[in-house]
Amino acid sequence: MSSMDSKADVTEDGADGVLVVQGATEFAALLCTERACGRRVGLVPTMGALHAGHTSLIERASSECDVVAVTLFVNPLQFNDPADLLRYPRDLDGDLTKCAGSGAQIVFAPPVEEMYPGYPDPPFTIVHVGGPSEGLEGESRPGHFDGVVTVVTKLFSLAGACRAYFGEKDFQQLAVVRRLVADLCLPVEVVGCPTLRDRDGLAMSSRNCRLSPSQRRAALALHRSLEAGRLALADGEADLDVVRGVMRAEMAMEEQVECDYADVVDARTLRRAEVVAGELRLLVAARVGPVRLIDNEGFTAAEAEVAV
């Protein structure tokens, strides 16, 4: 029996026995105690508004770790638009139910002042990761990844040695977090998990709930764009600018979709790819009505060779 088991009746404050923690010190102490009992810790950082993509991360962590902690924190530092921050969906009760049903035992749901004392004044310390944070989302949303890696660094510092689970839908974010862990020698194993999609192909996102029915149908153009790019590559197209044009053209067919970028990059470095070689990643971003969505898919040069 772990220390968490023995005091569940005292600290329970959520659905179905999930321990809900708001204090950073308490959260760190809980996980430290779990490790002292020989238990492997899994961490799933989220901004709440959980959907099946998130719960798949929790289930994966639960299958590979002894205790799973989920963080629910809408991080203001990674929003460029204050209105977008205000509109971001929040559903704590629903999130707690999903966490419990997916195998989480601890939920860290701090108020913003707990993570950033003095808020709304910005913190004096901001973490910056170069390399994979440049271009794509980094170019379209200046300062976004500084906000992401600042809060992730804080969460990793509190959680200690653990396995941290991130979805591949935010592929650039995953690459940035891996670079952060490697450069700072953090005791964290970053685990990337496949993108979950609805039956029609739309990548699951907390933002999807803000789409009207017609906008949601239009949003399928992002996935079609990726599939068109993959098909062009598989058919032997070697000019990546042609592939990028194919992807943009697919999105341009939907009047409600405003393309931000459609690119093909080296999957390891996230630098713009010049030739079809090794592991590639096709990435798109677009605004559909009031909602900005991103998506991506992988492609290997071997797939093109097989097609030839």
Features of this protein?
Pantoate--beta-alanine Ligase, Chain: A,domain 2, single chain, Rossmann fold, 308 residues, six-stranded parallel β-sheet, 13 helices, three-stranded antiparallel β-sheet, globular, alpha/beta, 2 domains
If you had to describe this structure to a student in words, what would you say it looks like?
By secondary structure, the chain is an alpha/beta fold. It has 2 domains: about 5-195, HUPs (Rossmann fold); about 205-305, Pantoate--beta-alanine Ligase, Chain: A,domain 2. Helices cover about 45% and strands about 20% of the residues. The chain is built from 13 helices and 9 strands. It has helices spanning about 5, 10, 25-35, 50-65, 80-85, 90-100, 110-115, 135-140, 145-160, 170-185, 215-235, 240-250, 300-305; strands at about 20, 40-45, 65-70, 105-110, 160-165, 190-195, 255-265, 280-290, 290-300. The strands form 2 sheets. A 6-stranded parallel sheet has the order 1-4-3-2-5-6, sandwiched between helices. A 3-stranded antiparallel sheet has the order 7-8-9. Strand 8 and strand 9 form a beta hairpin. Helix 9 crosses helix 10 (about 170-185). The longest helix is centred in the last third of the chain and has 22 residues, at about 215-235. The protein is globular, with a radius of gyration of 20 Å. It starts with a helix and ends with a helix. About 40% of the residues are buried.
